[in-house]
Specification:
Length: 332
């Protein structure tokens, strides 16, 4: 079995996965959403402090599996340096104490392999990764061959939901609450401009849309009209525009290179409006849509364990002296 640790942002999580059967033997995650919500976003130092409390608590429950472990895996990039460090320190300590090899896992590969938890890989596949930090289209051949073919030049899809939520005083994370409010709103109430509509580039941008929403909120506030229904209308119109932007760019890309399989991963792939519309788009292009179960869309250690199985089988280990933490990664 492999014990895997995830602490790249605001979720402390540990999983235990069977290497041969890929079965998820144990999985637990403690989220810090409530603690960060008052600040309208993740506060890195607070997140690190909360990992220090949560990770050992979860580890305590895994002790009975220690004798069966063959390796320790941990997310080392990308993410918040101070929170990644907490997971990596725990992984190093475990590897040294239990005399086990260490596996360093790329968090984004983890999101991609969330599609294959307790399953074999279904590759190659065109993947849309939408999270709090990333909006990317990735051509995935296998674990070692992943190519980013389009990404955002500023904010990410998930982040734009967080910012709209913050502007409306709805707390963090913004995705679920904005999606909820949008259900009661009219998505045509505001005519927000779809970003990069005329540009042929396979590229995303959310800063302009965020600004358009900010201006609309200020205007409604000035007129004393920022009531429940107006908030719902803003959320619905914003969500539609944010998703339409992705759909337009994906359609452009699929016309150039029709995909056999399409997948959506990352925390924001839980968005129902996005899922429904990508399903329609994939049908239009006769491609199969693969989705991860909702519980594995946001950050978790099960996906890190799933990648670690592949790395274990190809002897992709790192020495505890060499493992480093990287906040950003340009390539896979
Ligand atoms: O993958 P994830 O858990 O963490 C990162 O690696 O960033 O993604 C978290 C992001 C947050 O920005 C959150 O607001 C967004 O995913 N998110 C959503 C939804 N659920 C979570 N965005 C839109 N709609 C949702 N239903
Ligand atoms: Zn993530």
């Amino acid at each position: 079995m492999i014990l895997s640790i995830e602490s790249s942002c605001d979720d402390s999580s540990i999983a235990i996965t069977n290497i041969e059967t890929k079965e998820l033997i144990y999985h637990k995650k403690i989220s810090q959403e409530a603690e960060h919500s008052v600040y309208g976003g993740v506060v890195p130092e607070l997140a690190a402090r909360l990992h220090i409390e949560a990770l050992p608590k979860i580890l305590e429950e895994c002790k009975s599996y220690f004798k069966d472990l063959k390796a320790i895996a941990v997310t080392n990039a990308p993410g918040l340096s101070v929170t990644l460090t907490e997971g990596v320190m725990m992984a190093k300590a475990l590897a040294i104490t239990l005399n086990l090899p260490l596996i360093a896992v790329n968090h984004l590969k983890g999101h991609i392999y969330s599609l294959f938890i307790q399953k074999d890989e279904l590759l190659p596949c065109t993947v849309l990764l939408v999270s709090g930090g990333h909006t990317q289209i990735i051509e995935v051949e296998d674990l070692e061959n992943m190519k980013i073919v389009g990404q955002t030049s500023d904010d990410s899809f998930g982040e734009s939901f967080d910012k709209v939520s913050k502007m409306l005083g709805l707390g963090y994370p913004g995705g679920p609450v904005v999606q909820e409010k949008a259900l009661k709103g009219n998505n045509e109430a505001y005519d927000f401009p779809i970003p990069l509509r005329q540009s042929p580039a396979i590229e995303f941008s959310y800063s302009g849309l965020k600004n358009a929403v900010r201006v609309a909120i200020l205007k409604e506030e000035e007129n004393g009209k920022l009531d429940e229904q107006t908030i719902a209308n803003i959320c619905a119109s914003f969500q539609k525009t944010a998703v339409d932007h992705i759909l337009m760019k994906l359609k452009k890309y699929f016309k150039l290179l029709p995909p056999k399989k399409v997948a959506i991963v990352g925390g924001a792939s839980a968005n129902i409006y996005l899922r429904e519309n990508i399903l329609k788009l994939s049908k239009e292009f006769n491609s199969e849509l693969i989705l991860a179960p909702l519980e594995f869309c946001s950050d978790n250690a099960a996906m890190i364990g799933r990648v670690a199985i592949e790395q274990y089988k190809s002897n992709d280990f790192v020495s505890f002296k060499d493992i480093d933490v990287k906040a950003r990664l340009k390539e896979f």
